[in-house]
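Morning - FHN inputs below, output right after.
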Amino acid sequence: MKTFRQVFAVALVCCSVSAIPALSQIEGETIATSTAHSVAAIQDTETPAQRDARMAWWREARFGMFIHWGLYSIPAGTWKGKQIPSIGEWIMNNASIPVADYKALASQFNPTDFNAHNIVALAKSAGMKYIVITAKHHDGFAMFASKADPFNIVDATPFHRDPIRELAEECRKQGVKLGFYYSQDQDWTAPGGAAYKTDHHDLPSHHWDPAQDGDFATYLHTKAIPQIKELLTNYADFPVVIWFDTPTADMTPALAGEIVALLNQHPNLIWNNRLGGGYKGDTETPEQYIPAQGFPGRDWEACMTMNDTWGYKSYDTNFKSTETLLRNLIDIASKGGNYLLNIGPDSKGNVPPPEVERLRQVGKWLAINGEAIYGTKPTLFGGEAGSFSATEKDAEGKPKFIPAWNWRSTTTADKIYIELFAWPGDSFTLPGVPRTVTGAYLLADNSHAALKVTKTGDGIAVALPSHPLDNIATVLVLTTK
Ligand code: FHN
């Protein structure tokens, strides 16, 4: 599978260096100050204060739900009796399914079990503050009512409902924010849409059906841009996020600029770094990994699957444990990022039970310990996350980061939270605390009984009970001044 980084690298090749905004450090944050783009993005012109205001809810949120749902949930990983390797939403590409055969799936798509109320309630019960759903993935099928293209869930299926509208209504009712994923560049069923063959990494675009041939700019002007307009204007206060994906060399700065001009009309919108054309967007988007030290000076969001696919695959049961998911969330928060955790509903609209179960468990922990996550700032320490190996190299030949899983830390103005994974025994010592600690207690202890704090040079030792209050992560709170 071609990684996003490989695809994006191709996109960057086409952009002259001058097309990339100049950067300067203002109050510790990287802000673009000028751009050679013909259309300046809002990120290039706003002040740091305006940016902080725009990003405020997103930084507070820390935890969101990604939903990959579309026609690919019907084959669910199997085509003509053969299990197709790799991620489920890529089945059309990986099995080289002809456009007409793939499009024919629409007539079978009738997800009558889809219940927007339940999905939004599930996100809430998991402690997630926002949802990002695939409005259109690379297969080109719109999961929303679209006048711009008939290959959409309302016009092309017996379902005739717009799940995006239903989710928007429920999100409004239940106080969850809603964003849309839109595959602006790859579109395997529209003539001219980009397509990658995962086994032909050297080729910038590789169609497997003449029906895909065409002109990229025409595709953009007749389908992608009109649909992005629909998404930006048909759902009232949503979307709050547009999540672009897999930009290719086809997305020139000029073409991307046409999209940016639309995005600029929605000044509160947040959009990611995957538009292409050299635009850096608001957020870095590490996929399926947590960066060793986050992205200092940039907002970032790690997107991850619970098993090994984004779109539903009936036989992928390789689910991560609740412990892993929760520790990922804490690890990400301790490095200043958000966690966008995916669910892949099936073709009837049901969320796989192992996903529901894990989300509820994470939500139980957050209901007690959420103040250590939401709206927090990164660790004041850093070494606890792990260290770079002196001998082992990563895939890029750089020293490999070896994570440690004893504890993490998040902070607010007057508190340091220590999320303890490995129970240290009857005392936790912390050398070099850069604040004065005035007290300590365990967050899950309703009485917040004071724990004895002893100074040790620059650091402290906190007396602990003999057992953790939570086997996955017990939060020690240090009050500080
Ligand atoms: O190709 C897509 C993939 O199907 C999935 O949507 C992920 C989610 O981040 N993004 C792309 C791969 O980077």
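Note: The first strand starts at residue 22 and ends at 26.

O.
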